[in-house]
Amino acid sequence: MEGGERAVLARLMARLPVAPGGAGLVTGSDDLLAAERWAGDDAAAVSVGGEILLLTIDTAVAGVHGDLDVLSVADLGWRAVAGAISDVAAMGGEVQHLLVSVVGPPVTDLEALYDGVLGAATSHGAVVVGGDLSTGPQVVVTVAVTGRMPRRADGRLVRPVGRDGAGPGDVLLVSGPLGASGAGLRLLRARRCSLDAGAHDDRGDRAEAAAMEAHRRPLARLGQGAAAARAGASAMIDISDGLGIDLGRLADASDVGFRLEDLPVAPAATEDEAVGGGEDYELVMATSDPDALYRSFAEAGLAPPLRIGTCVADRAERTLHGRPLGAAGWEHPWH
Amino acid sequence: MEGGERAVLARLMARLPVAPGGAGLVTGSDDLLAAERWAGDDAAAVSVGGEILLLTIDTAVAGVHGDLDVLSVADLGWRAVAGAISDVAAMGGEVQHLLVSVVGPPVTDLEALYDGVLGAATSHGAVVVGGDLSTGPQVVVTVAVTGRMPRRADGRLVRPVGRDGAGPGDVLLVSGPLGASGAGLRLLRARRCSLDAGAHDDRGDRAEAAAMEAHRRPLARLGQGAAAARAGASAMIDISDGLGIDLGRLADASDVGFRLEDLPVAPAATEDEAVGGGEDYELVMATSDPDALYRSFAEAGLAPPLRIGTCVADRAERTLHGRPLGAAGWEHPWH
Questions:
Q1: pTM (two decimals)
Q2: So what's the ipTM on this one?
Q3: Which residue of B lies nearest to A105 if distances are taken between CA atoms?
Q4: Which of A27, B16, B140, B221 lies in the 20 to 30 Å Cα band around A120?
């Protein structure tokens, strides 16, 4: 089988039945059109009892999604939870319940792993309502998440934001500077090498410490996603594999191209890390009304989103500072 | 870490926050008391928009939960889905959505695996709404399931049935004869050996073929679970690890003992397989009103449940035909 795992997954998911009304709208039992979305977006959106329920599952494999030379199993547990919750953030939802399955060899420090899982759950306002535990050769943490769309003051449901709604001329913004997680991984590895060489443990400056923390203990941008959804963002995705890859997915789904003029780089990060480093979990948002987005972020007490460029009609045009932006992000091989 | 994986999981889950009102009742936003149950039962039950949502996650590891010498990867996918859905059946719920995460080495035949996943989903009336795919050294299939409690004709929600409601004097019944899956595994292994020895492929009689099918392609007892819940069963659990272990869990949670006088053994199965063989996914039900249970099964067009014994006040008494019933089921070691 050829292609990255997302391509394989897309092909497998294409065999699934389509949501009622396709990717379109079904009339909710409530006061608002509820958009049912199944496989193919960050999370599925289904209607249950007049609410829009968001459902997503995400797996972290030790050695693939986390380097246990520089991360603890507690970090791995945390990252699995944060990564799964980020898919709810990318739809604009509130997180509710987590189900956590752990596979690992009998020597695994499960107490530490659950410390990370529960720490991340608490930090995101989620609750673990169930789990499973199995023996296996490698640590695998799978997290399923339920979320729901918030309601406006007048009781109307906020619509989930898919990847596919961006149009030509829409402004593109990110919820914060990029590359911190990638920089953190580089710094953690460098520190590990210098520790191995017997060097003094110099944790570096505050920006470097923040980058390492961003890699070890990422936080999903739930507040920012909800603010974008309330402001009617046309499309949104979380940056889990890198801006190049994830913005490419949004553009593919929306059938647009993009022209980026700005790239906000996190302190301690390089421009390459900002484009290609994954696991930042910042959000990329498209909107035809950026002022509404700025207002919504301000009303929620959040730092303003950062404009990076615009969507264009030519889907072949994908540039940063006028040069082609390769999908220099990171994708697991699957062939 | 000592003890079976369920004991470890129980200890980890004991660290989780408790559902509002403990294992007790919270007033639903609807017309009925909604029982919120979190970790500790077959599935968590949470209230969403006036509905009771059931949530559960289950993982199948190749070589641990399925012997790939006698099962195909399609079988493994099917079994993972059926096993996860069975937890919804054991609460009396209807299954709705599945999220499926697959980890495996790049050589894994994903098309075949998804054939099994989708076949099982369709056979149980469930829909796969999302998934994830990762590389790893061993095939691991994790299935998260949402279900919901049905409503009665008058609109009232049926209450989810936990493990902990059985009382002394309650009658114990199973939804069908036991041991087919264990017998099927034995027969599949024997056939494999005779095929390896160059023998003619004699698939045996119909009972043996049915047992092998029960092992390869189990079906959750959704109809039976819902019928038991409608009839007000006091406690219920699915037999995933064997009658000895699973009835022991129901008795532990309900703080009762049991006295079994009958053991319905599936055709082609031995008595040991009926007691200790797991993965039958038949349900064990306790009720103070067995006539209501028989009526409910008949109204649903189901074969009547089979009485196996009664619950007793002395939780130390756990007997079959007057002899102690050991937990001769199967549990993964975790130490």
A1: 0.88
A2: 0.86
A3: B334
A4: B140
Could you tell me the CATH superfamily of domain B5-148? PurM-like, N-terminal domain (3.30.1330.10)
Q: Please check whether residue B195 touches A, CB under 8 A.
A: no
Closest CA to B170 of B308, B37, B40: B308
Q: Which two tokens stand for residue B17?
A: 């926050």
Evaluate whether the domain defined by B171-184+215-324 bears CATH number 3.90.650.10.
yes
Q: What is the residue extent of each domain of chain A?
A: 5-148, 171-184+215-324
- B284-to-A154, A274, B309 alpha-carbon distances in Å: 47, 56, 11
Test mutation, A12, A73, A94, chain B, max B CBs within 10 A: A12
Residuewise pLDDT in 10s, chain B (335 residues): 334 666 666 666 666 655 543 333 232 333 333 345 555 678 899 888 788 999 999 999 987 777 778 899 999 999 999 999 999 999 999 999 999 999 999 888 999 999 999 999 999 999 999 888 888 888 999 999 999 999 998 989 999 999 999 999 999 999 999 999 999 999 999 988 776 666 555 556 899 999 999 999 999 999 999 999 999 999 999 999 999 999 999 999 999 999 999 999 999 999 999 999 889 999 999 999 999 999 999 999 999 999 999 999 999 999 999 999 865 544 444 43
Q: How far apart are CA A292 and CA A289, in angstroms?
A: 6
